[in-house]
Amino acid sequence: MVLSGSEVKSLRQRRADLDGAYATIERGEVWLHKMHIAPYEQAGPFYGHEIRRPRKLLLKRSQIQKWEGKLTTKGYTIVPLAVYFKGGYAKVELGLAKGRRTHDKREDLKRTQDMREARDAARRDR
User: Fold this and answer.
1) How many degrees, rounded to 5, is the angle at CA 67 between CA 63 and CA 68?
2) Each residue's pLDDT tens digit, 63-102
């Protein structure tokens, strides 16, 4: 992963969040989007970094082609699973995920609505 100095220091303090992050392949390069790396507190205002900027992932050409082949299947995306350091390099573990279908979302909405109604009924009975 290509990082600036303040991003590395903040990552070493475990101040990163992968919620909502995903990777894309653009013009033969892999980019990680929406990964949050908190600002490094000791860095001044001139040495900081953007919190959610796209970050380039360094992969071999064969690995990029492998991921590109998997992405051609409709509904799949690349998601980061973990960020760790190995030998002084920041590494990202990637996984292939399938997006939810509309009926899956409806089931989740119904389940949360039912739980909310049951909780409200339990409160009224007290």
Assistant:
1) 115
2) 999 999 988 877 789 999 999 999 989 999 999 998 766 6
Closest CA to 27 of 68, 63, 62, 66: 68
Whether the full predicted model's pTM is greater than 0.90, yes or no, is no
Collapsed DSSP state (helix, strand, coil) of residue 32: strand
Domain boundary assignment for the chain:
5-98
CATH of domain 5-98: 2.40.280.10
Say if CB 55 and CB 32 are below 8 A apart: yes
Distance between first and last Cα of the chain:
55
Cα–Cα distance, 82 to 52 (Å, whole number)? 17
What are the structure tokens assigned to 52, written together?
Answer: 């959610």
Length of the chain: 126
- Read off the tokens for 31: 């980019």
E strands of 38-121, at which residues? 55-57, 76-86, 89-98
